[in-house]
Amino acid sequence: MIPGIPPETRPRLISRFHPGSGQGHYKATSYYEVQRSLALQHLGLRYKTKSTCKPTPFCPIIRIQPLNPLFSNPNTPNMSFPPWTSTTRHDTYPAISPTNPALSSKGKVILITGGGSGIGAATAISFAKSGARAVIITGRTEKSLAASAAAIKALGLGCEARYFVADVEDAPRIEAIFSAVSVECGKIDVVVSNAGYLPDHSLLKDARLEDWWRAFQVNTLGGFTVLQAFLRHASREGTFITIASALAHLYFPGFSSYGASKLAAVKLVQDAQGEWPERRFFSVQPGLIDTETSSKSNVPGEDTVDLPAGLSVWLASPEADFLKGRMLWANWDVEELKSKEEEIVDGDLLKIVLKGWP
C-alpha cells in the first residue's frame, strides 16, 4: 500500500517494490493507461525516466524523487478521473491540424495575448499555418515577442505578423492596441486570451497576500480587460478563447488563487456568451505542458504546445459551434465531441453550475 493514493486506484496504478531512504523505485503497468503523472502527484513525487533497474515493455520502471510536500496532502482528492472521451490526446492530430482545409483561417485577423512563448507562440504559428491574414501578439517581453513574430514570417506564408509590448492589466494600453489593429488590419476575428500568472503554490494559511492576489490581477482582471476590448472591436461573429485550467473545477491543495481566478475567467466566458449569442466564446484546459509558467507547479508535462494550439484553430471554425459558451479539455478528442453534440447541447453540459440545483 502506498500512502497518498486512493485505495481504489492503488492496485492498478503503481506498486512499490524497493524502499529507499527518502527515494525509491516504483513500477507502473503503463505510462498513459494509468495517467502516470496524476498518480505520482498523489505520492508527492516526480518521475524520471532513468533507473538503476531494467524496464520491460510491459512494465516500465521509473525512478522517482520527492516533490513538493503539498502534493502528498492527505486531503487531496482522487485525481484518477475518467476521460470525457474514450480517446485522450497528447499532441496535435488531423482533426485539429492547422493545415486541415476545413479549418482554414484564410483572411482572418488573429490576436493572441501572451504570444511570445509557450502556448501563445505555438498558437500564433498554428493560425499562420491555417491561412490567417494577420497574427498580432502581445506580451511583456519584447525579445520573445520579436522572436515569435519572426518565426511566423519565416514560414513564408504571407501572414502579417506584428507585436505589441503590453501588460493585460493595463486597460488603456489594451484598448489602444485593439483599436489600432481594427483600424489598420480590419475587425479582429479571433482572440486567444492566453496571458496568465501562476502564484507560488502554498496552503491558504501560508500564502503571501501580494502573490496570491496577483493571480486575480492577471487572470481575472487582465482577462476581463482583453474580453472587453474584444467585445468592442471584434467582428460580428468573432471567436474568443480563454486559456483556463482544470483547477477552475477541480480541487488541488496549494493552488487556491490560481484555481479561483481561472474559475472567474471561465464564468466571464459563459456570461459573455449569454450577452452576445451571435459571437463564439470558449474556455480551454490546455493540458499538462512544460512552459515557463507551469514550471512553478513542479507537475511534469506530458502534452505538447501544439495540442491547445491546434484546438484553438478548430474552435475558431464552424465545427465547434455547438460548444459555444462551454469549457473543454484539449485532451478530449474533437471527433468524439462532435458525436456527442446532441447530448452536450440538450443536457447543457460542460458549463460551470451549482451541482444538484435545480
From TrEMBL:
It holds the Pfam family adh_short. Residues 108-291 form the Ketoreductase domain. InterPro entries: KR_dom, NAD(P)-bd_dom_sf, SDR_fam. It comes from the Eukaryota. SUPFAM superfamilies: NAD(P)-binding Rossmann-fold domains. CDD domains: SDR_c. Signal peptide: none annotated. This is Ketoreductase domain-containing protein.
